[in-house]
Design goal:
Layout lengths: L2 E12 L2 E12 L3 E5 L6 H9 L6 E6 L3 E2 L3 H6 E4 L11 H11 L5 H11 L12 H14 L4 E5 L7 H18 L2 E5 L3 H7 L2 E6 L2 E7 H6 L1 E7 L3 H6 L3 E7 L2 E7 L11 E3 L3 H10 L20
Parallel strand pairs: 3-8, 3-9, 6-7, 7-8
Antiparallel strand pairs: 1-2, 1-4, 4-5, 9-10, 11-13, 11-14, 12-13
Helix pairs in contact: 4-5, 5-6, 7-10
The chain binds adenosine-5'-triphosphate.
Adenosine-5'-triphosphate binds next to β2 and α1.
Organism: Actinomadura nitritigenes
GO molecular function: ATP binding
Protein name: ABC transporter ATP-binding protein
Length: 302
């Protein structure tokens, strides 16, 4: 199985702060991966290490089928769009294309020009005179023109209004369908994940908390609703990720498959990806990683 990003014992320390620690994961190639987590969780750090823009303090990271991050082979295969899209604001878009062409061995200029024409972004306009959404589209166009195997985007949706966000993700998915490129993007917009991602990674406090295919994660959890006064007894025997109680009713988000019967007097409901991800983000001590089943508070190494 080819991997998009493969990390082993990866860590990055700034002074006394571990921005990322003991990070081990293996994200298979060919997915659209959503990387989520609260502010300061370590998302940018993980993406920068994968893009080869930062050096690990511990461990190692390989990208695009096992190339050492930051190596010449990896730089050829990986395109990175930073949080503040690194565009020269005083340059016209056409000059940005020229810069891209001269810096990259693989470069599809025709494709970039066609894409910008489709988007109605004039080549002669200075980057600084474009809207935030147009700038993000230019950054995505430049990244795709590199013909990458792995496209890494750090919060590409941050500056975009809901319509621009929708258009941007549609453009990204079209590119994925056309090229089969692997995409890893960080976002705070958890609601977008369901529509766009087929693989999810949650980071918290510099550690990987959740990693897995969206379908498996959803299939591997359900919600139980039942009487609050019996919730403690039920929760005692189940791997509960999140326990919410409202008046007389309890909602337990539980790890377990369709085969697991609901306790007598309780109803079982499927869970959506957004609800699942938010539950884990609210319960940092719970984790779900590839390997043997983990319950609340158990961290399972990849
Ligand atoms: N250059 C740096 N120098 C010192 N500390 C840093 C540096 N970069 C990141 N950190 C620290 O590392 C931790 C993780 O930061 P990081 O930017 O990776 O988080 P993030 O999940 O991307 O956050 P956000 O969602 O706010 O963008 C934070 O505590 C941050 O303060």
């Amino acid at each position: 199985m080819s991997t998009a990003i493969e990390a082993s014992g990866l860590g990055k320390r700034y002074g006394r702060t571990w921005a990322l620690r003991d990070c081990s994961l293996a994200i298979p190639a060919g997915h659209v991966v959503g990387l989520v987590g609260p502010n300061g969780a370590g998302k940018t750090t993980l993406l920068s290490l994968a893009a080869g823009l930062a050096t690990p303090t511990a461990g190692r990271v390989r990208v695009a089928g096992g190339r050492a991050a930051g190596s010449a082979a990896a730089l050829d295969a990986v395109a990175f769009v930073a949080q503040e899209a690194a565009l020269y604001r005083n340059l016209p878009v056409a000059d940005m294309l020229r810069v891209g062409r001269s810096l990259n061995r693989r470069w599809d200029d025709r494709r970039a020009r066609d894409r910008l024409a489709e988007l109605g972004i004039p080549l002669e306009k200075k980057v600084g005179a474009l809207s935030g959404g147009q700038r993000s589209q230019v950054a995505l166009t430049l990244a795709l023109a590199k013909c990458p195997e792995l496209l890494i985007l750090d919060e590409p949706l941050a500056a975009l209004d809901p319509v621009a966000r929708h258009d941007f993700m549609a453009a990204l998915l079209a590119a994925v369908a056309e090229d089969g490129v692997s995409v890893v993007f960080s976002s705070h917009v958890v609601a977008e994940l369901e529509r766009v991602c087929d693989y999810v990674v949650v980071v918290h406090g510099g550690r990987i908390q959740v990693s897995g295919e969206a379908e498996d994660l959803v299939a591997g959890h359900h919600v139980l609703t039942g009487p609050a006064d019996r919730a403690d007894a039920v929760a005692e025997h189940l791997p509960v990720v999140r326990d919410r109680r409202a008046a007389a009713q309890a909602h337990l988000l539980v790890r377990g498959t369709d085969q697991d019967a609901a306790p007598p007097g309780w109803q079982r409901h499927p869970v959506g990806l957004e609800e699942l991800v938010l539950a884990y983000m609210r319960e940092p001590s719970a984790s779900v990683l590839p390997g043997p089943r983990a319950g609340r508070g158990e961290q399972v190494a990849c």
